[in-house]
Structure formats: structure tokens, C-alpha cells
Amino acid sequence: MATSSLSCSVCDLRHISSPSAVWCTECDEGLCDSCQEHHSLSKASRNHTVIPITEYYKLPSDVVKISQFCDKHNEKLSIYCKMHECPCCINCIVESHNKCQQLLKIEDVINNVISTIAFFEIEQTLKEVAENIEKIRVDRQNNLKTLPETRQQIEKEIKKIPNSHQ
């Protein structure tokens, strides 16, 4: 996030100052309403994911700093090399990773990570629910044990109350 009022990248190239309305996660740039309309109609970018610029501002700075483009070739990072544990563009693969055996599509790696995190969160939630159920069960058993004593105490207290109906 370069500035607090992000300008439309396309308009900037045309030397026009226009605030961004959305952020394209694939192009990694902000777009005003007009440019976003063209962006959504263009064959090359119509399937890109855009988020409102207000949501982009809410992203943690660590997430915003993640580049989707290769520093060396300025190409989109599309492959993940498991051997070197790094993302690669097509040129990187040809130049440096052509012997690597485990090359995966980045989107598959991301989907696996997301589903692993989701599974972990569900597992944690289920553990908490099971712990809460056990606490409730123990409390219920304790309440049932003390019920006769509580009943006797209540009956004693009732007998102490003067009968006003006599």
C-alpha cells in the first residue's frame, strides 16, 4: 500500500489523477470505477478478482507486501518449486528450475494451505465444543448429586416460614 489515497494505476499512466475504487488482486493495482469497468470486460482480465479498495486498506501490511510478480523477470509468479521452496515465473523455471521435480501450480498450493488452515480451525472448534460438553456433563452430574440436599434445605426453610393463612 503505497499511499493512504491510492490512485488508479491506469489513469496514472495517462497522467490523470483518479482515486481507486477497487484493487485487482491479480494485476496488483488499484482501478477507478471507469477503468474497472473496462478491466472487467477485457478478455485478458475479465476473470480477475477485485476487492473494494476499503477492504484492501484493511489487509495486514505483511499480506500487502506479497508480490505476485517475479523481481527478476517482472512476470507473474505461477509455479511453486517445492525443492527450493520458492515461487517462480515461467522464465525462472527455464533458467533455474528446469531440473526440479516438484513444480506445482501456485493456486493449488494456496488452495491446499487454505483447506489445511480451515481444517485446523474446524478441528480446534470441535475440541472446544467437546470440552464444553464435558464441563456441562460434569456440572449436571454434580447438580443431580446435590439435588436431594438442596430439596431438604428448601423444605426446612419452608417450615420456618410462619403460615399467614391460619
UniProtKB/TrEMBL annotation:
<dbReference type="Pfam" id="PF22586">
    <property type="entry name" value="ANCHR-like_BBOX"/>
</dbReference>
<feature type="domain" description="B box-type">
    <location>
        <begin position="3"/>
        <end position="53"/>
    </location>
</feature>
<keyword id="KW-0862">Zinc</keyword>
<protein>
    <recommendedName>
        <fullName>B box-type domain-containing protein</fullName>
    </recommendedName>
</protein>
<keyword id="KW-0479">Metal-binding</keyword>
<keyword id="KW-0863">Zinc-finger</keyword>
<dbReference type="GO" id="GO:0008270">
    <property type="term" value="F:zinc ion binding"/>
</dbReference>
<dbReference type="InterPro" id="IPR000315">
    <property type="entry name" value="Znf_B-box"/>
</dbReference>
<dbReference type="InterPro" id="IPR047153">
    <property type="entry name" value="TRIM45/56/19-like"/>
</dbReference>
